[in-house]
Amino acid sequence: MQELVKRAKELLADGTVTRVLGWKKGDLAYNPEPAFFENEEALSEFVYDSFCGANLSKYMIEASKKEGKTLVFLKPCDTYSFNQLLKEHRVLREKAYIVGVGCAGKISAEKMKEAGISGILEVEGADALNPSETLKVKTLYGDKEVSYKDVMLERCHVCKGKDHMIYDEIIGESRDTLDGDRMEKVREIEAMSPEEKFAFFQSELSRCIRCNACRNVCPACSCRKCVFDSTKFDSAQKANVDSFEEKMFHVIRAFHVAGRCTDCGECSRVCPQNIPLHLFNRKLISDMNEFYGEYQAGADAETKGPLTAFTQDDIEPSEARERG
Amino acid sequence: MKKISKENLTKLFAAICEEASLILPLKNNGMTNFALWSEGDEVDLDTLKTVKSAKDAFFPQSETLYNCHREDGKLKISPGERMDENFVVFGVRACDKRGFEVLDNVFLSDPVDSFYKARREHGTVVALACHAPEETCFCSTFGIDSAEPGADVDTWFVEGDLYWKANTEKGEKLTARLSDLLSDADEKAVEEEKENIRSIMKKLPYAGITTEGWGGEAEKEKFDSPLWEELYKPCLACGTCTFVCPTCQCYDIKDYSTGEGVQRYRCWDSCMYSDFTMMAHGNNRTSQMQRYRQRFMHKLVYYPANYGGMFSCVGCGRCVDKCPTGLNIVKVIKAFSKKEDK
Fold it and tell me: What is the pLDDT of residue A235?
């Protein structure tokens, strides 16, 4: 972490950048917040640990409108989002100085609580680059231990890889965290009967409180005005009038980000009700891979996406009907 | 003081349901929220904090105010239903119970909200003391005693028993109705439990948080502070903090076209949203900084100014738990006291 701060200070001092976008220490053991640091002094509050899951690329939309360059710290998976935003002309490359930071998988307090640890006071071993295999947790109710892997975010178990897709320089080495198959659950749901599928999504989505955290954190949801916020149509929603509507919001959102979603997993990380929203996106990714060939949104900033490029070999809509 | 063994709780719930409906924390796919109980549901009284507060019991996220439709060529308006059956909310924590009082000030003062009032009249609150407070709790900042919530009925889990104490007429009535299942108990075990809870409360990381410097008289100074400009920046403008909050009471009224008519409903609104308090001439808060400031000014300045100094935060810590970017009201209070120290 000190290396990141040192480099940030150098880049501020030599005028390469005018501000730094990183993470600021929280007031508990696990709640750092995304932050802009305007000067060297402010960097005393900088932190980069295993709880820094927040993807900072979307904040670059705002930073691109400011004077001067912003140094932004991006983890390997965050760089896919940055590329995608670049492709959509939502961020400016020349306004960003990207320091790719190593990542050893991110964890969350939510996952620790799921693992039965409450009253968390201190967490030992949550080093961003070299975390302990077993975390030592000081709680109000005695000392606890938990395996790092057990409290890792779902997305880290299906990590896209250790490479940064775009960067100016890299600090710190990443670690392999992949130990799952990201399409496993998708196949499981595909194998369900229509009634079972409906029951599954009904049960998950019935918890939705329409807080819009999934939409607002999503780097692919970068419309200046969302149709669901418009007061001009019946589509404006703050609550679900009936159970059809709560599904409509999530299904429309999934379709809107199809071909642009990098599967960064932020939607599921921030959902206060722990709804596995990434499953919608992965189903569409899986279908697009099948129809148009393997494609990873954000792998670069130039390639046309499967739904924005037309080729004569494109699948006919009738095939979708035949598949049911 | 009465008690009932844990094994008999299902019987107790069934007995409550003979003459009332029952709302209590239920687990659905790992997440616990207040919901209507029916036999076989997974009751979860161990989870300290439900995701949403117990607020829905009296002020649901959305409710129909009236319906308009055509009948025999004429426009017909039918009013939404007011609650007319008794219900019990069970397992409410002390913070959420205080949250109801915050809502009472708003909805029961003139003009009285008849939907809210009907629910309050028909609802009996059975509170549960907090056996194991968490690091995000700070209810004591607002003078709340999580060891003794002071609801219609207060309960405590001590080992294998649920201890039960009625505090109000409504509580006595419910207790009398359930007397076959409740046996007499002495207070000793509960007194020890209360002491235990209070000693944990003193050890919490937020134990020293105070509201000093806040309140109605601080309006101008707080409103004009340059700190907001720094504090709001990571805010995503989502409504998580407002929708999990036991005291946020702002709502919007909307029309929904049903195809054959219009359903006028009200739903929770969030001051974080871009169309919050949108008026014909536009919006008087146009930036996220202003919206962010509004939320905390309302809780810590405007509300106490309107209601005799009472704050509209109860220290439940749900915003601390749930904010996607690690922001919360405690960080705001701390930032201001840090600045004043300088």
Answer: 67
CB-nearest to B252 from A209, A213, A238 is: A238
Residues of B in contact with A38 (CB under 8 A): none
Domain locations along chain A = 2-107+160-171, 184-308
Residues of B in contact with A240 (CB under 8 A): 62
Asked if the Cβ–Cβ distance from A272 to B256 is below 8 Å, we say no
> CA angle A116-A118-A124, nearest 5°?
95
Mean pLDDT of A201-217: 92
Q: Do A239 and B61 touch (CB under 8 A)?
A: yes
Tell me the C-alpha distance between A61 and A216, whole Å. Answer: 13
In angstroms, rounded to a whole number, what is the distance separating the alpha carbons of residues A274 and A205? 10
Closest CA to A100 of A115, A79, A80: A79
Q: Which of residues 187-226 of A touch B (CB under 8 A)?
A: 203-204, 206-207, 209-213, 215-217, 225
CA angle, B128 then B63 then B300, to 5°: 55
CA distances from B207 to B139, B202, B328 (A): 9, 6, 16
Average the pLDDT over A90-94 and give the result: 98
- For chain A, positions 83-102, list CB contacts with chain B under 8 A: none
Going by the DSSP 8-state scheme, the letter that residue A315 receives in this structure is P
- Identity of the amino acid at A56: L
pTM: 0.95
Instruction: Say whether B133 and A140 touch across the interface (CB within 8 A).
Output: yes
**pLDDT tens digits for B119-142?**
999 999 999 999 999 999 999 999
H or E stretch covering A202: helix A194-205
Q: Chain A, 32-91: which have a CB under 8 Å from a chain B CB?
A: 32-36, 54, 59
Length, in residues, of chain B: 342
Closest listed residue to residue A225, CA positions, set B92, B306, B66, B274: B274
